[in-house]
Amino acid sequence: MSAWWAVLGGAAACYLLKLAGLSVPASVLDRPLVRAVADRLPIALLAGLVAVQVLAGDWGVVLDARATGLLAALVLLLLRAPFLVVVVGSALTAAVLRHVGLMS
Hints:
By secondary structure, this protein is mostly helical. The protein has one domain (25-100). Helices cover 78% and strands 0% of the residues. α4 (65-78) runs antiparallel to α5.
């Protein structure tokens, strides 16, 4: 039963956080610094999540097929490839390297 209290508490906290964001006055959101931070914060959070998922191992940083797939995605993005090509190309790169046995 304690797990349900945790789920309900987490749901209430998320709702209150969303409500707090909606109640910020427009005058605060119109400031250039706030706008710049709000525009860049999702990019930084997503980059952090990708870095943790790709490079994190049990005891430290791990460079394996995931890192090579991320590098392939970076190259495809720099070449201005469409998003679907980037996703499929990076997944295919990691899959081929794992299948061949070059990386785990």
